[in-house]
Structures are given as structure tokens and as C-alpha cells.
Design goal:
Blueprint lengths: L9 E5 L3 H11 L5 E5 L2 H10 L4 E5 L7 H10 L8 E6 L3 H10 L4 E5 L3 H49 L4 E5 L4 E4 L1 H7 L3 H4 L14 H12 L4 E8 L5 E12 L5 E10 L1 H63 L6 H32 L4 E5 H14 L7 E4 L4 E5 H19 L6 E8 L3 E8 L31 H11 L3 E6 L5 E8 L24
Parallel strand pairs: 1-2, 1-3, 3-4, 4-5, 12-14
Antiparallel strand pairs: 6-7, 6-10, 8-9, 9-10, 11-13, 14-15, 15-17, 16-17
Length: about 550
């Protein structure tokens, strides 16, 4: 039996004889469905206009409109053309009635006298089929309702999102006439919807763009492409504003463009700030040029002053040295041992003072040297530096270990000075060892190359690291290790001009490692002034 929660199916019995109608109804009562009885074809037609029937039991022989005519009219109606019809006929007319009935679309026949079990079996099949059909249709209706509600919800959500968007949204037809604007459109342009809808989108044109600018936009979107661009538009009050627009063509089911959707963003404030920044940058560039010119003038004056001072200092130093030499040669035997020792101290001090003056001038020239950036093969450069040190006996007895080194971009003369100073230092501070060793290797990545120079010399105390790269600063006694404290200052200044950095690590008695990081690409740096301050750190030196 069908499920009880489903609505009862309706069975239509059409017969002009009361006894036959009642007999049919009595036989079908146990099915528990709703039975409708009519006595003529006309009443049957009226009944099917009101209700939907699971099956129709139709008497063939009826006065006025017989069963065949009634069946033909039922079949002619679209809503009932598939309703099952079972003809009821007498045995003696079975063959002729069956031929006409099947021609009219009958699904079955019942013969008099009626056998209740057979009747119920045939009718119950169509009732069950009808109920299942109704169940499927009910599910389809619920599904359509659910889809409709979901679509309505999505539509409302989309509509709310567009309406509440902080940026202007405009929908036009393919001719550019406005059909929709959101609230943000009114806030930005000053035009309420009732004034904008029906107007051409040219309503916002400011005249600031050439005709070709707008023609390009229309050509793009009419080809079905998305257009992105910036417009200077005019508000209702006549003021101008900058807007970034994205215009998207909308197509119908046939692929034809029917509308355009424009989303915009008011960038007026950003453009104003960019213009202010441009003016400020121009002003700063001018001030930098002026300041650079002033610094160059001061630098020239400082350089001239340094040369002047060196000349003025060298003259009395030469006099001191000359007269000390004369006094020593002419009165060597007349002077006591103490006097001769004093003369030696004077001579050495004058020589050291002259070396310091030369170091200061060399340091000044380092900042003025014009860099010529080129590709430098570090392996070749280091071999040349080591050869020069060996030729001058400074590197004699040193065990050199040089790993393959990469190429870098830089000024060849300056980089030669850097590694000459670093290797000279390594040799100098490791010469007291029984087997002086200097190791050179490199590490690199996409951004920079780092060259390391390690020795096994006396090392230094990291507590005094901040003095390491200052001019005229020394971490060791000049009696034990000659020098004037200028070499590492040279290194720092040159590496600074290459956009790199230099640092050192050490422990006393365990040697030192100096590292130079050079960028892979170097732009020519401007000359430095004598007053460039050094940078310091407790552990590493960033320059």
C-alpha cells in the first residue's frame, strides 16, 4: 500500500448505470483511495477539469456520449493525455471494443461480469504509479522552490553587496545609457539615482581627456574585453576628481553583449599626495644638488688645506732632520752617549711624523679617486698581490692557501689596495709565528660576494674592536709592529664606496679573520669628504 502521509489518489468511475458504478466502487473501496463516480461522458469531462485522477474506469456503451468519444476528448487535452483509461465492456462486444479502445490510447480492459480481484489488481498498479509520480513531482517542486529561494538569497546578497559597496558601481546598456547606480555613486559624483538613470555615461566626462582616449575605451569593451584605466571626471558641482575604472561587458545566453558594468575607485586624494610628493622630491633633489655643490667646494678647500698643511709641516720636519744629521756627522765623537740617543729619538720622531702626514694625504686621495667599475677576477688579483708581497720579502716564508675566488664588479685599483692592505696586515701580524699561514676563500649568494682573509698571527682583543677601522688607531704597540694606523681605514673607505661592508673576528693569540662583503652590482659612488665619519659596532662593521 502507498505511504499514509501521501494524499489519496482519485479514481474516476464513469458509467450510466447506478448498479455498475456501485459495483465498481465497492470492489475498489478496499484500496483506500478517493473514488469519484459520474454517470455520463459530459460529467466525466467536467470532473477532469477540476481534479487530477490516477486512473479512469470508463464504460464503453453510454447514451449520448459513449466511452470512445469521451476518451477521445480526454486524450485531446494536454493535462490528461497521459491519464490511464481502463475501458469496461461486455464479453460479447470485447473484440470490436478493444480495437477501438486501444486506438484511442486505452491501457487496459475490464469485462463484465466484473471480477473484483482482477479489477483491484489492475487499478492498484496505476494508483501506485500515480502516487510515485506525485512523489517525484512533489520533490521536484520542493527542489525548485529551494533553488529559487537560494537564487533569491544570492541575488539579494549580490544586490546588497553592490548597493553597499564603498566604490561607485554603474550599469549601462550597450549604448552607454545608465540603468543602475549604487549609493557610492551619488556620494562621489553628487548625482542621485533619479537624475543619473536614463542619462548617458558621458554625463561625467570632464573634457580633460582627448577624444581618442574615450574611443579606445569603447573599442575595447565593444570587443568584449575588460577595460581598465584612469579618468578625470566631473562631479555635479563641477569639481574634478580622479577615478580608476574597470569596465566589464555583460553577455546574454547567446553571447551577445547587452550591458556594461563599471566599478570605480576615487583616487583623488592619492593623486594629490603623489603630486605633493613629486614636488617635494623635486625640491629635495634641488637641495641635494645645492648641498653636494657646497660639500664639493668644502672638500676642495679641505684638500687644498691638507696639502698646504702637509707642506708647512714638512718644511720644519726636514729642517729638524737635516740639522740632526749634520749634528750627528760633525760632532759624533764630541757628543756623549745620552746626547747621541736623544738625537736618534728626534730623528725617528721626525720620520714617523712625516709618515703620518703622508698617510693622511693618501687617505684624503682615497675619497677623491674616481671609480671605474669593471669585472674583476679576484683569483688573478690576489695572485698579483701575493707575488708583490713575496717580491718585497714581506711575504717570504708565509704559507699561502688560496681557494678559487669568483669575479666581482668594482674598481680594480681600489680593490687592489683593499687586498694589499689586508694581506700585508695578515703577513705582518703572523710573521712572529714559526709557520706563518694565511688562508683566503670566498662565500657568495645572489646578492653579494664575501672574501675572507684568515691568519694565524697574534690576533687582537675584540674589546677594542670599535677602534679597528679608524684612521691613526692601532691595537698593537708600534715598537713590535710597524705601521701608522691608516691601512684599515683605507680598506673601510674603499669598501664603503663599493656599497659593501667589512668586519673582523679574532681572539688574542689565535689569529684574526677579516671579511669583505662586496655587492654583485656596483654603481659608481660619489667622492667622499675628509670628514666622513666611521661607523662602529661591537662585533661587526657595516659600511
Amino acid at each position: 500500500m502507498p505511504n499514509s502521509h501521501l494524499r489519496k489518489a482519485k479514481i474516476l468511475i464513469v458509467d450510466d448505470q447506478d448498479s455498475k458504478r456501485l459495483a465498481l466502487a465497492s470492489a475498489l473501496e478496499v484500496l483506500g483511495q478517493e473514488i469519484v463516480m459520474v454517470s455520463s461522458g459530459r460529467e466525466a469531462l467536467r470532473a477532469i477539469l477540476r481534479d487530477d485522477f490516477a486512473v479512469i474506469l470508463l464504460d464503453v456503451r453510454m447514451p449520448g456520449m459513449d466511452g470512445f468519444e469521451t476518451a477521445g476528448l480526454i486524450r485531446s487535452r494536454q493535462q490528461t493525455e497521459s491519464t490511464p483509461i481502463i475501458f469496461v465492456t461486455a464479453h460479447d462486444r470485447a473484440e470490436s471494443d478493444m480495437l477501438g479502445g486501444y486506438h484511442l490510447g486505452a491501457v487496459d480492459f475490464i469485462f463484465a461480469p466484473i471480477q473484483a480481484d482482477v479489477l483491484r489488481a489492475k487499478v492498484s498498479v496505476f494508483v501506485e504509479l500515480h502516487r510515485k509520480t506525485m512523489t517525484v513531482q512533489a520533490h521536484e517542486r520542493r527542489l525548485r522552490q529551494l533553488e529559487a529561494r537560494q537564487a533569491q538569497h544570492e541575488l539579494q546578497k549580490l544586490s546588497s553587496a553592490i548597493e553597499q559597496s564603498a566604490d561607485p558601481v554603474v550599469i549601462t546598456n550597450r549604448d552607454g545609457l545608465i540603468e543602475y547606480v549604487n549609493a557610492a555613486f551619488e556620494q562621489v559624483t553628487g548625482y542621485p539615482p533619479e537624475e543619473a538613470i536614463g542619462q548617458s555615461i558621458a554625463l561625467l566626462e570632464s573634457g580633460e581627456h582627448p577624444t581618442e582616449y574615450h574611443d579606445q575605451m569603447w573599442d575595447t569593451i565593444r570587443q568584449g574585453k575588460v577595460y581598465r584605466g584612469e579618468f578625470i571626471s566631473r562631479r555635479k558641482d563641477g569639481s574634478l576628481y580622479h577615478e580608476e575604472k574597470t569596465i566589464t561587458p555583460i553577455r546574454d545566453a547567446d553571447g551577445l553583449i547587452t550591458h556594461y558594468v563599471s566599478t570605480g575607485k576615487d583616487v583623488t586624494e592619492r593623486r594629490r599626495m603623489e603630486e605633493e610628493l613629486r614636488v617635494l622630491n623635486a625640491s629635495l633633489e634641488q637641495r641635494v644638488r645645492e648641498r653636494t655643490a657646497q660639500l664639493e667646494d668644502v672638500n676642495h678647500e679641505l684638500e687644498a688645506y691638507a696639502y698646504s698643511i702637509s707642506h708647512d709641516l714638512r718644511t720644519p720636519l726636514r729642517h729638524i732632520g737635516s740639522f740632526v744629521d749634520l749634528l750627528g756627522r760633525n760632532h759624533q765623537d764630541d757628543l756623549p752617549e745620552t746626547a747621541r740617543r736623544y738625537l736618534k729619538i728626534i730623528r725617528d720622531g721626525a720620520g714617523q711624523m712625516e709618515a703620518l702626514i703622508d698617510g693622511l694625504l693618501d687617505f684624503a686621495r682615497t675619497g677623491r679617486h674616481e671609480m671605474r667599475v669593471q669585472t674583476v677576477n679576484l683569483s688573478v688579483l690576489l695572485r698579483e698581490v701575493i707575488h708583490d708581497l713575496d717580491q718585497h720579502h714581506a711575504g717570504a716564508g708565509v704559507q699561502w692557501t688560496v681557494q678559487p675566488l669568483p669575479e666581482v664588479c668594482g674598481d680594480l685599483i681600489s680593490l687592489r689596495q683593499v687586498f694589499m692592505n689586508l694581506l700585508s696586515n695578515a703577513v705582518k701580524y703572523s710573521h712572529g709565528q714559526s709557520d706563518p699561514q694565511v688562508e683566503i676563500w670566498a662565500t657568495d649568494d645572489d646578492q653579494q660576494v664575501v672574501i675572507h682573509v684568515r691568519d694565524n698571527g697574534v690576533g687582537f682583543n675584540m674589546a677594542y674592536y670599535d677602534k679597528m677601522f679608524r684612521v691613526f688607531q692601532r691595537l698593537h704597540n708600534s715598537v713590535d709592529f710597524e705601521g701608522h694606523g691608516v691601512g684599515l681605514a683605507h680598506v673601510r673607505r674603499i669598501v664603503l664606496r663599493h656599497g659593501g661592508r667589512v668586519w673582523a673576528e679574532s681572539q688574542e693569540g689565535q689569529g684574526a679573520t677579516f671579511s669583505v662583503a662586496l655587492p654583485r652590482k656596483v654603481s659608481a659612488a660619489p667622492p667622499l669628504t675628509l670628514s666622513d665619519p666611521p661607523e662602529h659596532s661591537e662585533n661587526t662593521q657595516h659600511v
